[in-house]
Amino acid sequence: MTAPDGKPFLYVVVCAAGIAAGVGELITGARRRGWEVGVIATPVAAAGFFDVDAARELSGRPVRSAWRTPGEPRPFPPPDAVVAAPATFNTVNKWAAGLADTLAVATLCEASGLGVPVAVLPCVADALAVHPAYRDSLTRLRGMGVRFGARWSGVPEGDGARPEFGWERAFELVE
Ligand SMILES: Cc1cc2nc3c(=O)[nH]c(=O)nc-3n(C[C@H](O)[C@H](O)[C@H](O)COP(=O)(O)O)c2cc1C
């Protein structure tokens, strides 16, 4: 299934990590590669972690974070691939547990069952990554076929500079 113009459709699920401010790079890169993009943000992410207006401009579609009402048409076509970037500790754990309390997590919960590639770029601090719930979540999601990029913690390297997040890793995982 593809977008009406015949291009493949990518869902970009954005969580409330500081690095989300750069998600425009992912949207732009995806469109350059021929994807149509629909952005689905967690409510916390949409409330100030990235420029929602810019994401709407770049994707050419409204940014979603709430469910439609039953009478409303589906705003996005079904996805050909789903990328969660950045993915927070909170969302990864809710996703693995099947707690679909936001449109973003519900979308992720459903994605594996659609049989499309699903990729994650986790942005989780070292102190949270050792939590047993997180480790269990990774095992469970990997068992569902979800593809993980290396965890990014944002910790500065030896020279004091923060490492690149590497948004383009998402394309290597889904393409
Ligand atoms: C400035 C700021 C940056 C944050 N960065 C991260 C992060 O990189 N990773 C993370 O897991 N949580 C981070 N958090 C905490 C999340 O925003 C918080 O857990 C939130 O509930 C996640 O919601 P979501 O998973 O629904 O997007 C950050 C919070 C703030 C205030």
Structure at a glance:
With 175 residues, the chain is α/β, with parallel strands linked by helices. It has eight helices and five strands, in the order βαβααβααβααβα. Helix 1 (24-32) runs parallel beside helix 3 (52-59), helix 4 crosses helix 5 and helix 4 crosses helix 7 (132-143).
Principal-axis shape:
globular
Count up the domains: 1
Number of strands: 5
Give every kind of bound small molecule, once each.
flavin mononucleotide
CATH class term: Alpha Beta
Beta percentage is 5-15%
H and E string:
EHEHHEHHEHHEH
Distance between the termini: 16 Å
**Superfamily at the CATH H level?**
Flavin prenyltransferase-like
Mean pLDDT: 95
Helix content: 25-40%
Second CATH tier, the architecture: 3-Layer(aba) Sandwich
For the largest sheet, list the strands in their spatial order: 2-1-3-4-5
What is the CATH fold-level name? Rossmann fold
Organism: Streptomyces doudnae
Pfam families: Flavoprotein
InterPro entries: Flavin_trans-like, Flavoprotein
Domain Flavoprotein: 12-130
